[in-house]
From TrEMBL:
Identification of the protein by name: BTB domain-containing protein
Domain of life: Eukaryota
Domain BTB span(s) in chain numbering: 24-114
PROSITE patterns for the chain: BTB (PS50097)
InterPro entries: BTB/POZ_dom, SKP1/BTB/POZ_sf
Amino acid sequence: MLDPLVNLRLSELTGRSDINDDYTDMLLILRKPDDFFKSPSSDSDVVINVHTGVLRVASSYFNKAIDSLLEKRLKESGHLNIGAPLQLVLDTQYPSVFQRIIYYIYKNDYQNMNEETRFLVPLYSESVRFDLSELKNGVLRMIRSQASLEDLANLASAAESAGELELASECGRILSDSAYAVLSSNLHVNFGLTAMKSFLSSDNLQLDEVETFAALCYYMDTNKNLHSPYSTNHLGKQEKDLVKNIRFCSMSPKALSEFRCDSVNTFLLDGALRILNKTQSKPRVFPWNENDEYKTIKYNGLFPIMLVRSGKYQLTDRDHNSSNCKLVTPQVNKKVPSTYLAHTHGTEREGCEFFWAFQVSKTQSGKIGLGLTVSSDQPLDELSRSVFSTMSKSRKIVFFYDFAQNKFKSGYIDNTSSTEIRSLWTYDSNMNRSVYKLKTGDIVHLRTSVTFSCVNLQLSVVNSNFNEKFTIPISSKRTLGNLIKRAAILTSPFVMTYDVGDALVLPGLSSNFKF
Protein backbone atom coordinates (compact mmCIF):
# COMPACT_ATOMS: atom_id res chain seq x y z
CA MET A 1 0.00 0.00 0.00
CA LEU A 2 1.33 3.41 -0.97
CA ASP A 3 1.98 5.95 1.74
CA PRO A 4 -0.47 8.89 1.72
CA LEU A 5 0.94 11.99 0.11
CA VAL A 6 2.00 14.84 2.35
CA ASN A 7 -0.24 17.79 1.55
CA LEU A 8 1.05 20.09 4.29
CA ARG A 9 4.81 20.17 4.65
CA LEU A 10 6.14 20.67 8.18
CA SER A 11 8.62 23.33 7.10
CA GLU A 12 5.79 25.40 5.59
CA LEU A 13 3.45 24.87 8.54
CA THR A 14 6.01 25.99 11.10
CA GLY A 15 7.71 28.60 8.94
CA ARG A 16 11.08 27.17 9.96
CA SER A 17 13.78 27.06 7.31
CA ASP A 18 15.95 24.78 9.47
CA ILE A 19 13.53 21.85 9.08
CA ASN A 20 14.37 19.36 6.34
CA ASP A 21 11.15 17.59 5.40
CA ASP A 22 13.10 14.61 4.04
CA TYR A 23 14.35 13.76 7.52
CA THR A 24 10.99 13.39 9.26
CA ASP A 25 9.95 9.87 10.29
CA MET A 26 6.17 9.93 10.75
CA LEU A 27 3.08 10.96 8.84
CA LEU A 28 0.39 12.57 10.98
CA ILE A 29 -2.97 12.04 9.29
CA LEU A 30 -5.75 14.34 10.51
CA ARG A 31 -9.18 12.96 9.72
CA LYS A 32 -12.61 14.17 10.71
CA PRO A 33 -14.70 11.54 12.58
CA ASP A 34 -17.23 11.38 9.73
CA ASP A 35 -14.42 10.28 7.40
CA PHE A 36 -12.75 7.90 9.82
CA PHE A 37 -14.15 4.70 8.31
CA LYS A 38 -13.51 5.70 4.73
CA SER A 39 -10.54 4.52 2.70
CA PRO A 40 -7.14 4.48 4.44
CA SER A 41 -6.19 7.58 2.49
CA SER A 42 -9.09 9.98 2.04
CA ASP A 43 -8.89 13.09 -0.13
CA SER A 44 -10.16 15.14 2.83
CA ASP A 45 -7.28 14.04 5.07
CA VAL A 46 -4.64 16.53 6.13
CA VAL A 47 -1.26 14.76 6.03
CA ILE A 48 1.71 16.36 7.81
CA ASN A 49 5.24 14.99 8.05
CA VAL A 50 6.54 15.18 11.64
CA HIS A 51 9.33 13.94 13.92
CA THR A 52 8.42 11.20 16.41
CA GLY A 53 11.05 12.49 18.82
CA VAL A 54 9.49 15.95 19.00
CA LEU A 55 5.99 14.58 19.57
CA ARG A 56 7.23 12.14 22.23
CA VAL A 57 8.66 15.01 24.25
CA ALA A 58 5.53 17.12 23.83
CA SER A 59 2.99 14.65 25.18
CA SER A 60 2.64 11.29 26.91
CA TYR A 61 -0.30 10.64 24.57
CA PHE A 62 1.96 10.73 21.52
CA ASN A 63 4.65 8.79 23.35
CA LYS A 64 2.24 5.91 23.97
CA ALA A 65 0.72 6.13 20.49
CA ILE A 66 4.15 5.93 18.82
CA ASP A 67 5.17 2.98 21.02
CA SER A 68 1.96 1.23 20.02
CA LEU A 69 2.66 1.79 16.31
CA LEU A 70 6.18 0.40 16.66
CA GLU A 71 4.95 -2.68 18.54
CA LYS A 72 2.33 -3.28 15.88
CA ARG A 73 4.87 -2.98 13.06
CA LEU A 74 7.31 -5.32 14.82
CA LYS A 75 4.56 -7.87 15.44
CA GLU A 76 3.27 -7.79 11.85
CA SER A 77 6.56 -7.72 9.93
CA GLY A 78 9.13 -8.97 12.42
CA HIS A 79 11.27 -5.83 12.09
CA LEU A 80 10.86 -2.07 12.61
CA ASN A 81 11.58 -1.09 8.97
CA ILE A 82 13.16 2.15 10.12
CA GLY A 83 13.25 3.59 6.60
CA ALA A 84 9.45 3.63 6.27
CA PRO A 85 7.62 6.44 8.08
CA LEU A 86 5.09 5.56 10.76
CA GLN A 87 1.50 6.61 10.15
CA LEU A 88 -0.58 8.00 13.02
CA VAL A 89 -4.22 8.67 12.18
CA LEU A 90 -6.00 11.13 14.49
CA ASP A 91 -9.72 11.77 14.36
CA THR A 92 -10.37 15.44 15.07
CA GLN A 93 -13.23 17.82 14.44
CA TYR A 94 -10.69 20.60 14.06
CA PRO A 95 -7.97 19.73 11.51
CA SER A 96 -7.06 23.40 11.07
CA VAL A 97 -6.80 23.86 14.85
CA PHE A 98 -4.58 20.80 15.16
CA GLN A 99 -2.27 22.33 12.60
CA ARG A 100 -1.85 25.22 15.02
CA ILE A 101 -1.03 22.70 17.75
CA ILE A 102 1.80 21.28 15.64
CA TYR A 103 2.97 24.83 14.99
CA TYR A 104 3.16 25.59 18.73
CA ILE A 105 4.82 22.26 19.54
CA TYR A 106 7.64 23.05 17.13
CA LYS A 107 7.80 26.69 18.13
CA ASN A 108 8.08 25.57 21.78
CA ASP A 109 6.92 28.95 23.08
CA TYR A 110 3.67 28.76 24.98
CA GLN A 111 4.10 32.11 26.73
CA ASN A 112 3.45 34.30 23.68
CA MET A 113 0.56 32.56 21.98
CA ASN A 114 -1.86 34.59 19.86
CA GLU A 115 -5.09 33.18 18.45
CA GLU A 116 -8.54 34.31 17.37
CA THR A 117 -11.21 33.87 20.04
CA ARG A 118 -13.11 31.29 17.97
CA PHE A 119 -10.08 28.96 18.08
CA LEU A 120 -9.50 29.12 21.83
CA VAL A 121 -12.00 26.48 22.95
CA PRO A 122 -11.06 23.93 20.24
CA LEU A 123 -7.40 24.51 21.13
CA TYR A 124 -8.17 24.00 24.80
CA SER A 125 -10.24 20.85 24.13
CA GLU A 126 -7.58 19.26 21.95
CA SER A 127 -4.77 20.17 24.34
CA VAL A 128 -6.64 18.37 27.14
CA ARG A 129 -7.45 15.41 24.93
CA PHE A 130 -3.86 14.94 23.79
CA ASP A 131 -2.31 15.70 27.19
CA LEU A 132 -0.48 18.82 26.03
CA SER A 133 -0.23 20.50 29.44
CA GLU A 134 1.99 23.42 28.42
CA LEU A 135 -0.26 24.21 25.47
CA LYS A 136 -3.35 23.97 27.69
CA ASN A 137 -1.87 26.47 30.15
CA GLY A 138 -0.96 28.79 27.28
CA VAL A 139 -4.53 28.67 25.95
CA LEU A 140 -5.92 29.34 29.43
CA ARG A 141 -3.73 32.43 29.64
CA MET A 142 -5.28 33.68 26.40
CA ILE A 143 -8.77 32.88 27.69
CA ARG A 144 -8.10 34.88 30.86
CA SER A 145 -7.19 37.92 28.77
CA GLN A 146 -10.59 38.01 27.04
CA ALA A 147 -12.22 41.26 28.17
CA SER A 148 -14.74 41.70 25.36
CA LEU A 149 -18.23 40.62 26.39
CA GLU A 150 -18.86 39.38 22.85
CA ASP A 151 -15.73 37.22 23.01
CA LEU A 152 -16.70 35.82 26.41
CA ALA A 153 -20.18 34.99 25.12
CA ASN A 154 -18.72 33.24 22.07
CA LEU A 155 -16.32 31.41 24.35
CA ALA A 156 -19.23 30.21 26.51
CA SER A 157 -21.07 28.90 23.45
CA ALA A 158 -18.00 27.21 21.98
CA ALA A 159 -17.08 25.64 25.32
CA GLU A 160 -20.53 24.12 25.68
CA SER A 161 -20.45 22.73 22.13
CA ALA A 162 -17.06 21.15 22.85
CA GLY A 163 -18.27 19.58 26.09
CA GLU A 164 -16.11 21.86 28.26
CA LEU A 165 -18.96 22.53 30.69
CA GLU A 166 -16.88 23.95 33.53
CA LEU A 167 -15.45 26.57 31.19
CA ALA A 168 -18.93 27.38 29.84
CA SER A 169 -20.22 27.76 33.41
CA GLU A 170 -17.40 30.11 34.39
CA CYS A 171 -18.05 32.28 31.33
CA GLY A 172 -21.74 32.49 32.27
CA ARG A 173 -20.85 33.52 35.81
CA ILE A 174 -18.46 36.26 34.62
CA LEU A 175 -21.04 37.61 32.17
CA SER A 176 -23.68 37.87 34.91
CA ASP A 177 -21.92 41.02 36.16
CA SER A 178 -22.77 42.63 32.82
CA ALA A 179 -26.36 41.41 32.60
CA TYR A 180 -27.75 44.67 31.21
CA ALA A 181 -25.35 44.62 28.24
CA VAL A 182 -25.58 40.86 27.69
CA LEU A 183 -29.39 40.76 27.62
CA SER A 184 -29.87 44.04 25.73
CA SER A 185 -27.54 42.87 22.96
CA ASN A 186 -28.99 39.31 22.99
CA LEU A 187 -25.59 37.75 23.59
CA HIS A 188 -27.35 35.21 25.82
CA VAL A 189 -29.40 33.79 22.95
CA ASN A 190 -26.51 31.57 21.85
CA PHE A 191 -25.68 30.35 25.36
CA GLY A 192 -25.88 26.63 26.01
CA LEU A 193 -27.84 25.35 29.00
CA THR A 194 -24.81 25.24 31.30
CA ALA A 195 -23.80 28.86 30.66
CA MET A 196 -27.40 30.05 30.93
CA LYS A 197 -27.94 28.27 34.25
CA SER A 198 -24.75 29.76 35.64
CA PHE A 199 -25.79 33.19 34.39
CA LEU A 200 -29.28 32.99 35.89
CA SER A 201 -28.22 31.51 39.22
CA SER A 202 -25.70 34.26 39.94
CA ASP A 203 -26.41 36.73 42.75
CA ASN A 204 -24.67 39.34 40.61
CA LEU A 205 -27.49 39.89 38.11
CA GLN A 206 -28.17 43.57 38.74
CA LEU A 207 -31.64 43.54 37.22
CA ASP A 208 -35.25 43.64 38.30
CA GLU A 209 -36.42 40.01 38.53
CA VAL A 210 -39.32 40.70 36.18
CA GLU A 211 -36.87 41.66 33.43
CA THR A 212 -34.73 38.62 34.20
CA PHE A 213 -37.74 36.31 33.78
CA ALA A 214 -38.75 38.06 30.55
CA ALA A 215 -35.22 37.59 29.20
CA LEU A 216 -35.34 33.88 30.06
CA CYS A 217 -38.68 33.48 28.27
CA TYR A 218 -37.17 35.11 25.19
CA TYR A 219 -34.16 32.78 25.40
CA MET A 220 -36.38 29.69 25.54
CA ASP A 221 -38.66 31.00 22.81
CA THR A 222 -35.74 31.53 20.40
CA ASN A 223 -34.06 28.21 21.20
CA LYS A 224 -35.38 25.49 18.90
CA ASN A 225 -34.71 22.82 21.52
CA LEU A 226 -36.69 24.54 24.29
CA HIS A 227 -40.27 25.63 24.93
CA SER A 228 -41.29 28.96 26.40
CA PRO A 229 -43.53 28.85 29.49
CA TYR A 230 -46.19 30.64 27.46
CA SER A 231 -46.14 28.30 24.46
CA THR A 232 -48.68 25.52 23.98
CA ASN A 233 -46.12 22.90 25.00
CA HIS A 234 -45.49 21.69 28.53
CA LEU A 235 -42.18 22.48 30.15
CA GLY A 236 -39.67 19.64 30.17
CA LYS A 237 -36.88 19.02 32.66
CA GLN A 238 -34.44 21.34 30.88
CA GLU A 239 -36.89 24.23 30.86
CA LYS A 240 -37.80 23.70 34.53
CA ASP A 241 -34.11 23.62 35.48
CA LEU A 242 -33.81 27.10 33.97
CA VAL A 243 -37.03 28.54 35.41
CA LYS A 244 -36.17 27.42 38.95
CA ASN A 245 -33.30 29.96 38.88
CA ILE A 246 -35.78 32.84 38.72
CA ARG A 247 -36.34 34.30 42.19
CA PHE A 248 -40.10 34.78 42.00
CA CYS A 249 -40.15 35.65 45.70
CA SER A 250 -38.33 38.86 44.77
CA MET A 251 -41.32 39.99 42.69
CA SER A 252 -44.43 41.74 43.98
CA PRO A 253 -47.73 39.81 44.39
CA LYS A 254 -49.08 41.95 41.54
CA ALA A 255 -46.29 40.84 39.21
CA LEU A 256 -46.77 37.20 40.21
CA SER A 257 -50.46 37.36 39.34
CA GLU A 258 -49.69 38.78 35.91
CA PHE A 259 -47.36 35.88 35.06
CA ARG A 260 -49.85 33.14 35.89
CA CYS A 261 -50.01 30.20 33.50
CA ASP A 262 -50.13 26.43 33.97
CA SER A 263 -46.45 25.94 33.15
CA VAL A 264 -45.12 28.20 35.91
CA ASN A 265 -47.94 28.30 38.47
CA THR A 266 -46.01 25.95 40.78
CA PHE A 267 -43.04 28.32 40.77
CA LEU A 268 -45.30 31.34 41.28
CA LEU A 269 -47.06 29.67 44.22
CA ASP A 270 -43.72 28.91 45.85
CA GLY A 271 -42.71 32.55 45.41
CA ALA A 272 -45.99 33.80 46.88
CA LEU A 273 -45.70 31.50 49.91
CA ARG A 274 -42.15 32.65 50.54
CA ILE A 275 -43.32 36.26 50.47
CA LEU A 276 -46.22 35.44 52.82
CA ASN A 277 -43.99 33.58 55.27
CA LYS A 278 -41.13 36.09 54.91
CA THR A 279 -38.75 33.32 53.84
CA GLN A 280 -37.65 34.87 50.56
CA SER A 281 -34.49 33.65 48.88
CA LYS A 282 -31.42 35.85 49.05
CA PRO A 283 -32.02 38.90 46.83
CA ARG A 284 -29.64 39.63 44.00
CA VAL A 285 -27.18 42.52 44.28
CA PHE A 286 -28.62 46.04 44.53
CA PRO A 287 -27.24 48.96 42.50
CA TRP A 288 -27.70 51.26 45.50
CA ASN A 289 -28.85 51.26 49.11
CA GLU A 290 -30.80 53.65 51.30
CA ASN A 291 -29.11 55.79 53.93
CA ASP A 292 -29.95 59.04 55.72
CA GLU A 293 -29.53 60.98 52.45
CA TYR A 294 -31.11 58.64 49.91
CA LYS A 295 -34.39 56.79 49.46
CA THR A 296 -34.85 53.86 47.10
CA ILE A 297 -38.03 53.06 45.21
CA LYS A 298 -39.09 49.51 44.45
CA TYR A 299 -41.58 48.61 41.76
CA ASN A 300 -42.94 45.12 41.18
CA GLY A 301 -40.78 43.57 43.88
CA LEU A 302 -37.87 43.84 46.27
CA PHE A 303 -35.42 45.33 43.78
CA PRO A 304 -34.73 49.08 44.13
CA ILE A 305 -34.96 50.35 40.58
CA MET A 306 -34.79 54.04 41.54
CA LEU A 307 -32.60 56.14 43.82
CA VAL A 308 -33.80 59.56 45.03
CA ARG A 309 -31.64 62.10 46.82
CA SER A 310 -34.09 63.03 49.56
CA GLY A 311 -31.73 64.61 52.07
CA LYS A 312 -33.50 65.39 55.34
CA TYR A 313 -36.84 65.72 53.57
CA GLN A 314 -39.69 63.32 52.93
CA LEU A 315 -40.96 62.18 49.56
CA THR A 316 -44.40 63.38 48.48
CA ASP A 317 -47.29 61.43 49.94
CA ARG A 318 -48.01 58.46 47.70
CA ASP A 319 -47.19 54.77 47.49
CA HIS A 320 -44.27 55.01 45.11
CA ASN A 321 -43.49 51.30 45.33
CA SER A 322 -46.83 50.39 43.74
CA SER A 323 -46.67 52.99 40.96
CA ASN A 324 -44.34 53.04 38.00
CA CYS A 325 -41.61 55.43 39.13
CA LYS A 326 -40.06 55.22 35.66
CA LEU A 327 -43.04 57.24 34.45
CA VAL A 328 -43.39 59.56 37.46
CA THR A 329 -40.27 60.56 39.41
CA PRO A 330 -41.08 61.01 43.12
CA GLN A 331 -40.86 64.59 44.36
CA VAL A 332 -39.17 65.79 47.53
CA ASN A 333 -41.15 67.96 49.97
CA LYS A 334 -38.81 70.94 50.20
CA LYS A 335 -39.24 74.64 49.66
CA VAL A 336 -35.62 75.76 49.44
CA PRO A 337 -33.19 73.82 47.21
CA SER A 338 -30.39 72.16 49.16
CA THR A 339 -26.95 71.55 47.68
CA TYR A 340 -24.26 69.53 49.42
CA LEU A 341 -22.32 66.36 48.69
CA ALA A 342 -23.79 62.98 49.66
CA HIS A 343 -23.09 59.46 48.49
CA THR A 344 -24.30 55.88 48.58
CA HIS A 345 -23.27 52.59 47.03
CA GLY A 346 -24.74 49.22 46.07
CA THR A 347 -24.31 45.65 47.25
CA GLU A 348 -20.74 44.46 47.25
CA ARG A 349 -20.00 41.70 44.75
CA GLU A 350 -16.96 39.85 43.40
CA GLY A 351 -16.22 40.01 39.71
CA CYS A 352 -13.77 40.81 36.94
CA GLU A 353 -15.87 42.32 34.14
CA PHE A 354 -18.71 44.73 34.94
CA PHE A 355 -21.16 46.67 32.78
CA TRP A 356 -23.71 48.84 34.59
CA ALA A 357 -26.24 51.29 33.18
CA PHE A 358 -27.84 54.22 35.01
CA GLN A 359 -30.41 56.70 33.72
CA VAL A 360 -30.87 60.23 35.02
CA SER A 361 -34.53 60.38 36.03
CA LYS A 362 -34.34 63.93 37.33
CA THR A 363 -31.56 66.43 37.92
CA GLN A 364 -31.39 70.07 38.88
CA SER A 365 -27.96 70.86 37.46
CA GLY A 366 -26.39 67.55 36.33
CA LYS A 367 -24.03 67.48 39.32
CA ILE A 368 -23.77 63.73 39.69
CA GLY A 369 -20.79 61.44 40.24
CA LEU A 370 -20.75 57.80 39.12
CA GLY A 371 -18.11 55.15 39.69
CA LEU A 372 -17.31 52.19 41.89
CA THR A 373 -16.12 51.19 45.32
CA VAL A 374 -13.23 48.79 45.90
CA SER A 375 -12.68 46.85 49.11
CA SER A 376 -9.02 46.85 50.08
CA ASP A 377 -6.92 46.46 53.20
CA GLN A 378 -4.36 48.91 51.81
CA PRO A 379 -4.67 52.67 51.16
CA LEU A 380 -4.13 54.24 47.77
CA ASP A 381 -0.85 55.81 48.84
CA GLU A 382 1.34 56.41 51.87
CA LEU A 383 0.21 60.02 52.25
CA SER A 384 -3.33 58.91 53.08
CA ARG A 385 -2.42 55.87 55.19
CA SER A 386 -3.01 57.67 58.48
CA VAL A 387 -6.54 58.63 57.41
CA PHE A 388 -7.27 55.17 56.02
CA SER A 389 -6.05 53.39 59.16
CA THR A 390 -8.34 55.38 61.48
CA MET A 391 -11.53 54.63 59.52
CA SER A 392 -14.02 51.92 60.46
CA LYS A 393 -13.88 48.39 59.08
CA SER A 394 -16.58 49.33 56.57
CA ARG A 395 -14.09 51.59 54.75
CA LYS A 396 -13.90 51.42 50.98
CA ILE A 397 -11.88 53.09 48.27
CA VAL A 398 -14.00 54.98 45.75
CA PHE A 399 -13.21 56.03 42.20
CA PHE A 400 -15.74 58.06 40.26
CA TYR A 401 -16.27 60.59 37.52
CA ASP A 402 -17.68 63.86 38.85
CA PHE A 403 -19.84 65.40 36.11
CA ALA A 404 -19.98 68.63 38.15
CA GLN A 405 -16.29 69.24 37.42
CA ASN A 406 -15.77 66.75 34.58
CA LYS A 407 -12.90 65.08 36.42
CA PHE A 408 -12.07 61.69 37.88
CA LYS A 409 -11.78 61.60 41.66
CA SER A 410 -10.87 59.13 44.39
CA GLY A 411 -11.13 58.91 48.15
CA TYR A 412 -12.31 56.82 51.09
CA ILE A 413 -15.80 56.29 52.50
CA ASP A 414 -17.28 54.25 55.34
CA ASN A 415 -20.66 53.73 56.97
CA THR A 416 -20.16 56.46 59.56
CA SER A 417 -20.98 59.29 57.15
CA SER A 418 -22.93 59.58 53.91
CA THR A 419 -21.79 63.17 53.32
CA GLU A 420 -18.03 62.83 53.60
CA ILE A 421 -15.39 61.46 51.24
CA ARG A 422 -12.10 61.45 53.07
CA SER A 423 -8.75 62.13 51.37
CA LEU A 424 -10.69 63.28 48.32
CA TRP A 425 -8.30 63.60 45.40
CA THR A 426 -8.99 65.14 42.00
CA TYR A 427 -7.01 63.88 39.01
CA ASP A 428 -5.81 66.49 36.55
CA SER A 429 -7.72 66.23 33.30
CA ASN A 430 -6.02 66.25 29.94
CA MET A 431 -6.63 69.17 27.63
CA ASN A 432 -8.85 67.16 25.30
CA ARG A 433 -11.18 65.79 27.97
CA SER A 434 -14.87 66.10 27.16
CA VAL A 435 -16.99 68.55 29.11
CA TYR A 436 -20.46 67.16 29.49
CA LYS A 437 -23.42 68.27 31.59
CA LEU A 438 -25.77 65.47 32.53
CA LYS A 439 -29.44 66.10 31.87
CA THR A 440 -32.70 64.30 32.56
CA GLY A 441 -33.04 61.22 30.38
CA ASP A 442 -29.32 60.63 29.87
CA ILE A 443 -28.18 57.00 30.16
CA VAL A 444 -24.66 56.46 31.45
CA HIS A 445 -22.80 53.22 30.77
CA LEU A 446 -20.11 52.28 33.26
CA ARG A 447 -17.67 49.55 32.22
CA THR A 448 -15.02 48.06 34.51
CA SER A 449 -12.34 45.53 33.57
CA VAL A 450 -10.00 44.07 36.19
CA THR A 451 -6.42 42.93 35.65
CA PHE A 452 -3.88 41.77 38.22
CA SER A 453 -2.03 45.10 38.02
CA CYS A 454 -4.84 47.65 37.65
CA VAL A 455 -8.56 48.28 37.17
CA ASN A 456 -9.78 49.97 33.99
CA LEU A 457 -12.83 52.21 34.31
CA GLN A 458 -14.77 53.62 31.36
CA LEU A 459 -17.84 55.87 31.31
CA SER A 460 -19.90 56.86 28.30
CA VAL A 461 -23.21 58.64 27.75
CA VAL A 462 -25.58 57.09 25.21
CA ASN A 463 -26.19 59.17 22.06
CA SER A 464 -23.33 61.55 22.83
CA ASN A 465 -19.61 61.82 22.19
CA PHE A 466 -18.80 61.56 25.89
CA ASN A 467 -16.46 58.64 26.55
CA GLU A 468 -13.89 58.82 29.33
CA LYS A 469 -11.41 56.21 30.57
CA PHE A 470 -9.32 55.97 33.68
CA THR A 471 -6.76 53.41 34.88
CA ILE A 472 -7.11 52.80 38.60
CA PRO A 473 -3.77 51.94 40.25
CA ILE A 474 -5.06 49.02 42.31
CA SER A 475 -3.60 45.53 42.01
CA SER A 476 -5.76 42.45 42.48
CA LYS A 477 -4.96 39.52 44.74
CA ARG A 478 -8.27 37.76 44.12
CA THR A 479 -9.09 35.30 41.34
CA LEU A 480 -12.42 34.23 39.90
CA GLY A 481 -12.94 30.80 38.34
CA ASN A 482 -11.18 27.49 38.64
CA LEU A 483 -10.11 27.36 34.97
CA ILE A 484 -10.22 30.98 33.87
CA LYS A 485 -8.72 32.35 37.10
CA ARG A 486 -9.40 35.97 36.19
CA ALA A 487 -8.21 38.81 38.39
CA ALA A 488 -11.16 39.99 40.49
CA ILE A 489 -12.16 42.67 42.99
CA LEU A 490 -14.89 43.19 45.59
CA THR A 491 -16.82 46.18 44.31
CA SER A 492 -20.18 47.94 44.03
CA PRO A 493 -21.63 50.88 42.09
CA PHE A 494 -20.95 54.27 43.68
CA VAL A 495 -23.26 57.29 43.36
CA MET A 496 -22.58 60.83 44.52
CA THR A 497 -24.92 63.82 44.11
CA TYR A 498 -24.97 67.45 45.22
CA ASP A 499 -28.59 68.46 44.71
CA VAL A 500 -31.47 67.22 46.84
CA GLY A 501 -34.22 65.96 44.54
CA ASP A 502 -31.93 64.42 41.91
CA ALA A 503 -32.87 60.86 41.00
CA LEU A 504 -31.41 57.92 39.08
CA VAL A 505 -33.23 54.89 37.70
CA LEU A 506 -32.10 51.63 36.14
CA PRO A 507 -32.99 51.79 32.43
CA GLY A 508 -34.94 48.93 30.91
CA LEU A 509 -33.25 46.49 28.56
CA SER A 510 -32.72 48.20 25.22
CA SER A 511 -33.04 46.66 21.76
CA ASN A 512 -31.01 49.61 20.45
CA PHE A 513 -28.06 48.82 22.70
CA LYS A 514 -24.59 49.35 21.27
CA PHE A 515 -21.24 48.63 22.90
